[in-house]
Amino acid sequence: MGTAKIPALLWFLLAGLVLALAVNPAHGAKTRHYDFFITGTNYTRLCHEKSILTVNGQFPGPTIYARKGDLIIVNVHNNGNKNITIHWHGVDQPRNPWSDGPEFITQCPIRPGGNFTYQVILFEEEGTLWWHAHSDFDRATVHGAIVIHPKRGTTFPFRKLDKEIPVILGEWWNDDVEHVLDKAKRIGGDVELSDANTINGQPGDMFPLCSRDDTFKVAVQQGNTYLLRVINAGLTNDMFFAIAGHRFTVVGIDARYTKPITVDYIMIAPGQTTDVLLKANRTLGSNSPYYMAARTFITLPVDTIRFNNSTATAIVEYTDSAAARPVGPPEFPFLLPAIKDEDAAMAFVKQLRSLGNQDHPVHVPMQVDEHMLIDININFLPCDANNATNKLCEGPQGNRFAASLNNVSFQNPAIDVLDAYYYGSGRGVYEENFPNKLTVFVNPTGNINGGGPLLMKRGTKVKVLEYGTVVEVVFQDLSIENHPMHLHGFTFYVVGRGSGTFDERRDLATYNLIDPPFQNTVSVPKSGWAAIRFRADNPGVWFMHCHFDRHVVWGMDTVFIVKDGKTPQAQMLPRPPNMPEC
């Protein structure tokens, strides 16, 4: 786009005015301040102590509390030993890609000893989101919840609550996750499996004795209603989640309200959030505690590919009377689906619908300007004994793992895409030719894992959109597992999904254009498809990627660049003067 640099004082004055207008203080919005100190902190799990990166020494990290429309200022001080960035997952950040966070996409990382102040602009979000590191595998331990309450004078569109409880599902590696990533990059093989799934940082009492005393516990009282804000912060696993002896009601996903559905379990992919109401209505006369359980959901062939098959547990205890004190071991949720129950996963996601009432209307774009069919695949790169960075190959058939969208395997540039675009110096940093459909390249660097004839190319290819363009993306999975696809800068309508190959003549008739779920991360089913729609009315540079972190490293990502519109309110905010340098 190209622009002149703005003096720091003028930038602060302009930014302060624009942000004040954005949060609209006339409607009771506030500016909230947080300090995040990145530090190495010793933690013990599974009888194994190690130093992990944390925010303010906490694992999981601190919860951010705000109201719809607030401005959140977070000053991140990197007191750790490596570069880092922070992303505010699901926050659309209107006109403000500068604070979105993915390294080498919208910023250079914060170096050890440095700091950067993020301006997190809440707009339409209401419910549960989360923040996490967006550099290497740091988000394994650097993550936390964002709780966004309704504006003052308004309320939740469901029954009165007695308590809200963040429930963060994650993973634990006994090894240092930086070593895990470095090894995978070095040998070209798959990422070492995590050693346990976790609930709020704890694996639970189905693991060795030293883990049992620290099992996360939830105290409830008969007749009360609890809002569980469930977040999948894991790097590699979809999860099934359930509570023994209780059903719950889904009321929100990705900080957007849904029509209430009562279920025995949920399936939640990495990056997603789900708000569920738990009614404490234990069976009279039953004094047993109840397990809250999170189990891996996997679509890979379990007989040939290793995976983490552990179940994390927490305990729900009734504390309202002496008679309710726990007696005996906790009950296990026998309706928690099995590890490979694809039917159970699809049955859950197909029930999701936007609330669609007067206060939370649905606005599905009906006229599509740009159609994209994006094929998702796992690929490989040939081993090259003459290349120092590509000569160790422990991937399939002696090659190195890679991944692609439309046969393009994304490579991070040396400087961030946003700066290159803003200063009009994109040439040599990225190419504006990401394809709208699967492409066979003349000079390939790898071919599809599984023997297909299609060929892959590595590069930094981006898709440029005019402001206001209505985009429909159909993700088509060509691999052997689900993929949670996340788009920064936008919330989109999931208008359709299905199994097999997408057929426009057949599948358009199955679209839900009335009340589709409104999400920022969609789980694309194994060997199936999912269709999303959004209006490109947020100018800036926005990352789109699989939320399995190893797939991001392998190249399953791309970038949308949305041009400025004609009015000042449709144009990107100026570049902050204190952006980290590469």
From TrEMBL:
Judging by the UniProt lineage, the source's domain of life is Eukaryota
Kindly state which keywords UniProt assigns to this record, in alphabetical order. Answer: Apoplast, Copper, Lignin degradation, Metal-binding, Oxidoreductase, Repeat, Secreted, Signal
Q: Which SUPFAM superfamilies match?
A: Cupredoxins (SSF49503)
> What start and end residues bound the annotated signal peptide?
1-28
Q: Which Gene3D superfamilies match?
A: Cupredoxins - blue copper proteins
Listed under catalytic activity are: 4 hydroquinone + O2 = 4 benzosemiquinone + 2 H2O
Q: Where in the cell is it found?
A: Secreted, Extracellular space, Apoplast
Q: What EC number(s) does the entry state? A: 1.10.3.2
Q: Fetch the Pfam families from UniProt.
A: Cu-oxidase, Cu-oxidase_2, Cu-oxidase_3
Q: What is its main location?
A: secreted
Q: Name one GO molecular function term.
A: hydroquinone:oxygen oxidoreductase activity
Q: How is the cofactor bound?
A: Binds 4 Cu cations per monomer.
Q: What does this protein do?
A: Lignin degradation and detoxification of lignin-derived products.
Give the family per the record: Belongs to the multicopper oxidase family.
Q: What is this protein called?
A: Laccase
Task: Name the species this protein comes from.
Answer: Oryza barthii
